Every structure is written in structure tokens, then in C-alpha cells.
Amino acid sequence: MSARDVILDVRDLRKVYRTPSLLGRGTEFVAVEGASFQVERGETFGLIGESGSGKTTVGRMLLRLLEATSGYVEFDGYEVLGLSGPRLRELRQRMQIVFQDSGSAFNPRLPVGEQVAFPMRKFRLHPEKEIRGRVVELLEHVGLQGDQAQRYPHEFSGGQRQRLGIARALAVQPDFVVLDEPTSALDVSVQGQILNLLCDLQEERGLTLILISHNLAVIQHMCDHAAVMHQGHVVESGAVDELFGAPRSDITRQLLEAVLEPTAPQA
User: Fold this and answer.
1) Which DSSP category does 79 fall into?
2) What are phi and psi of 95, to 5 degrees?
3) DSSP class of residue 266?
4) What is the CATH number of the domain that holds 38?
5) Domain count, the chain
6) Torsions phi, psi of 43, nearest 5?
7) 19-46 per-position pLDDT tens digit
8) Quick check: is 266 in a domain?
9) Which residues contact 86 (CB under 8 A, 6 or more apart)?
10) Are 18 and 26 in contact (CB under 8 A)?
11) Residue range 169-198: average pLDDT?
């Protein structure tokens, strides 16, 4: 991996949760310890691990949705953890997230078009008179209909809400998107449609993606490189073909043995 191709460099990332106590120092829970990996520009990088392994915590720290306890994160030349003010605002435009739970990711009291439009207004990307048209374009681009912008979140299926989540993430024209278990709550056939949509959008827009998943078939289908997490640690990382074909870690072997002949979801 050459340095000029690396868009994200993560070193020794750590997250500790502290619970205060009136009787003493309190307790600590180490959610992530010493996580390190690199992501190349334009690739899909997987974070693999069972529930509670720390992969979602890592994804949120990269975007400063959670503050890291310590470590180093460099995104395209910027040291992320120390950013503030206008530079942090620029980062938030360039780095977006699609959440796992599409139901709770949207305000049930607002039409979805308003929620897709919100980041455009926040970052002042377009004149107000153009925003409605931009929302319609985005909805159609992710496989929905423009006139659905006036509907409310409960009027959409789970797969449609995930398409809305993708549209909202793309509204600010990012070049980096974290996908936090984007298909885990969907039927297999719908999973394939969403994954194919993400592949198409990545190619069209030159996106760099981090895909967080416990589903090895999805990782194998989507990712170029991946890191395996266990109890907050990255236990192994590398090219997906190598990880799946000749795993070095016992944890990776156990994950693979738990899945019989993993196959990608069908479109």
C-alpha cells in the first residue's frame, strides 16, 4: 500500500468509558484498544466482528460522533481528532454515515424530503430555490420516486428507508461514507439491492466506504480490505481474499467456521 493512495490512517485508537462513583474512582470499560488500519482512496474497507467487538465505536470515532480517548486519525492530510471550527465543519461535510437502524434514524414528524434537504441547508450547498429539485434528484438516484419526498418515514419499508438514509448521506456530496450494518435488518433479497446500489454509487461518485458488518458474505462481496475486531482489538487486517483464504488469527478462523459456505446476497 503506497502512502499516496491512503485517504484514512488510523493508529492506536482507544475509547474508554468511565462510570463515576460517589464512593471512589468509579469503573472503566475499554471499548476499543489500540485499533490501527489504513484505508485506500476509492476502496471499500470492512470492519468485521461479533456484536460488542468495538467496530461501530471505531466508525463513530472516525467521524467525531464519539470522541476518542486517545489515538491518531488522519483523513486526507487532516489530523481528525484535533480539528475544530471551520476545519471540523469541512470534515463533517466530507465524511458521512448511514446508520444501521433506518427507523430511528429519521424524525417521524417530518416529511423525508425535509430531512434529506436539511444537510444541504446546513452546509449552504445550494440556493434555497434549487434545494427541492436536488432532493428529487437524490431520491430518484437511489431508486425512489421524487414525489415521495412529501411522505413520512413510517410510510416506507425498511429497504426504502435505508435508501433514504443513503440519499441523506449523499446530500452533502461526501467522498467518504461509513456504512454501519446497512443491511442487517433487511430481507436477503433487499440486502442485495442495497449492496448493488452502494456499489453503483461508489463507482459513479468515487466514494471511499467503510462497511461495518458481522456478515462475512457481505464483506466478501463488497470489500477490498478488512480488519477483524474482537473485544475492542484489531486482531488481523489485510486483503479480504487473504483473510478468508488463509486467516492468521484464531478469531478470524472461528468467525469463518461459524458460517457454512458464505455467499453474497442475491440481487
Assistant:
1) E
2) -120, 120
3) P
4) 3.40.50.300
5) 1
6) -100, 170
7) 877 666 778 999 999 999 999 999 999 9
8) no
9) none
10) yes
11) 91
CA dihedral sign, ordered 181, 186, 191, 195: negative
HEC-encoded secondary structure of 23-76: CEEEEEEEEEEEEEEEEECCCEEEEECCCCCCHHHHHHHHCCCCCCCEEEEEEC
Tell me whether residue 267 is in a domain: no
**Cβ contacts of 97 within 8 Å, gap of 6 or more:** 59, 60, 63, 65, 169, 177, 178, 179, 180
Note whether residue 123 is domain-resident. Answer: yes
Question: 208 CB contacts (<8 Å, ≥6 apart)?
Answer: 7, 8, 39, 40, 41, 42, 43, 44, 45, 175, 176, 177
The whole domain housing 114 covers: 3-257
Q: Answer yes or no: is 197 within a domain.
A: yes
Cα–Cα distance for residue pair 84/103, rounded to 1 Å: 31
Which grid coordinates belong to 159?
429497504
Beta carbons within 10 angstroms of residue 145's beta carbon: 10
pLDDT per residue over 69-125, tens digit each?
999 999 999 999 999 998 999 898 999 999 988 778 899 999 999 999 999 999 999
Q: Which long-range contacts (CB under 8 A, 24 or more apart) does 250-253 make?
A: 252/228
Assign 1 a pLDDT band (cuts: 50, 70, 90).
Answer: very low
